[in-house]
Amino acid sequence: MHAYRTHTCGQLRPADAGSSVRLSGWVHRKRDLGGVLFVDLRDHYGIVQLVANPDSSAFPLFERLRAESVVRVDGRVVERSKETVNPELPTGGIEIRVDAAEVLGAAEELPLPVFGEPDYPEDIRLKYRFLDLRREKLHRSILLRSQVIASLRRRMIDQGFTEFQTPILTASSPEGARDFLVPSRLHPGKFYALPQAPQQFKQLLMVAGFDKYFQIAPCFRDEDARADRSPGEFYQLDFEMSFVTQEDVFNAIEPVLAGVFDEFGQGKRVTKAGSFPRIPYAEAIAKYGSDKPDLRNPLVLADVSEHFRGGGFGVFAKILEKPNTAVWAIPAPSGGSRAFCDKMNSWAQGEGQPGLGYIFWRDGEDGGAGPIAKNIGPDRANAVRDQLGLKVGDAAFFVAGDPSVFYKFAGLARNKVADELNLSDKDQFAFCWIVDFPMYEWSEEEKKIDFSHNPFSMPNYDHEAFLELDPKDRATVEKITAFQYDIVCNGVELSSGAIRNHKPEIMIKAFEIAGYGREVVEEKFGGMLNAFRYGAPPHGGSAPGVDRIVMLLAGVENIREVIVFPFNQQAQDLMMNAPGEVTPKQLKELHIRVIE
């Protein structure tokens, strides 16, 4: 017989009744029922019930053993009677009558429980992550992560992509987030950087003639934590393709993402590959108040300015006298009660807003109810209702001012209304592409044109005309869009991507428009420019975030729930005490001195 086990804890079934078996695992919990000990034994594969009678040599051992101790047991498989079958467990039709047991690893008193999974402070969970990972929900999420990565890799290979590994030690990038720096022992005073992404390397692979690259790539950014962003490191499905248009990129990755969400989405509907909606950036802002809209939410924002211009509601009428202003409406089907409108108004004040104007429509009240309706009169109020397609029993909320300032709040209000009224169809994964991002924007702080997003995207503009552009022609420059796109699912941005600017003269001009001279571009990006001068194919790609994909599939709100050993929000590993101090000898070897 094997030294530790003949079967796993999740393997045995009624067909195994009568077999002699050896199992090893963790003591999940114990129950003493009338002098008979029932012990749930757990391993990676499942849970099985052990039974130790008082005459068994294992009985006194189990009596004194703490939960989470590791044991080996020998016994017989017994089929349970019909009334004692546990339908919640795959092994619920049998139990093991224990003849002998041995402690393989005794457990001390636990700093946090594994059984029952009560909510526990995050610092305790992270300090004792090895215990936290034994808990069923987290254990399942980490397994899901592994399965998702295997599926992504398989699907990318099936799509004709080849996996390459790019360097972890590289040069510091002047763009993007803050780098993690690594001092060089051999080159005093010089530093490597951990890659924020394999961006330049994957583009260089295209220049080198490799047609379709991918990698499950580790990326490192010294930035603050958020619920959907881990400080320090994260993983992405990084890919790049040569001789492609934007549509070619979409057609390559949609089957991969849709397939993975179909495979692991537990029956939820998934947007079909080939039919991810393409939403221009400006339209996404105007309709959803966000460049990462949650399309499970059916509500669409609307510009209702004309119904308030010169009207009786003085606050909005006065705002609309100023340039670049508007009044937007958030429709609220079934929200037509004063109680709900007051609730939304209070929520808005809690978000730092002065309030949230509203009209609601009810039986027997022509033109709607509420202060705004009374001020603008029934004709205008009914015109608002007709534009929004609302009826009696519905409501509408309003935000006014400069849309570039208030659009994010309007988007929050749209989601809040849908959540409060249960309007969103949560039983789906709703994908879309956000396209036509603006290439440039006006920086009020620096009083100049600057890049809006990725400076290395190809401008969606005639190349000859682009080279002749006057950088001072702000009106024209601000209308230029880029071949840049985001993948969004259920309101979560999975990645940004672009058709790359592979022409040196176009890149130099793009930076000139943003106020950077040729010498700056040559100094900062000379390596990439030099490669492009030796024949670069048109190329593009993207990099969906693995952590965020798994977070959506696992149905959790915090990204640390799908990472094996995450940092806390202060970018600390409480289990390994990182970051930590190092010895003076180590610092001397690296030619570094720490200044107090």
Describe the structure.
The structure is a single chain. The chain is 30% helix and 23% strand. The chain is of the alpha+beta class. The strands form 6 sheets. Strands 6-9-10-23-22-21-18-12 form an 8-stranded mixed sheet. Strand 21 and strand 22 (492-499) form a beta hairpin. The protein is globular, with a radius of gyration of 30 Å. The mean pLDDT is 95.
Write a compact overview of the structure shown.
This protein has 596 residues and is an alpha+beta fold.
List keywords for this structure.
alpha+beta, 596 residues, globular, eight-stranded mixed sheet, single chain, 23 strands
**Content of β-strand:** 15-25%
Number of strands: 23
Major pleated sheet:
8 strands, mixed
Structural class by secondary-structure content: alpha+beta
Summarize the SSE layout with pairings.
Blueprint: E1 20-33, E2 36-43, E3 46-52, H1 58-64, E4 70-79, E5 94-105, H2 122-127, H3 129-132, H4 136-158, E6 162-163, E7 181-183, E8 191-193, H5 199-207, E9 212-221, E10 232-242, H6 246-264, E11 269-270, E12 278-280, H7 281-288, E13 302-303, H8 314-319, E14 326-332, H9 338-350, E15 357-360, H10 371-388, E16 395-401, H11 403-420, E17 428-429, E18 431-435, E19 440-443, E20 448-451, H12 463-467, H13 474-477, E21 484-489, E22 492-499, H14 504-513, H15 518-532, E23 539-542, H16 546-554, H17 584-589
Parallel strand pairs: 3-5, 6-9, 11-17, 12-18
Antiparallel strand pairs: 1-2, 1-4, 2-3, 4-5, 7-8, 9-10, 10-23, 13-14, 14-16, 15-16, 18-21, 19-20, 21-22, 22-23
Helix pairs in contact: 4-6, 4-16, 14-15
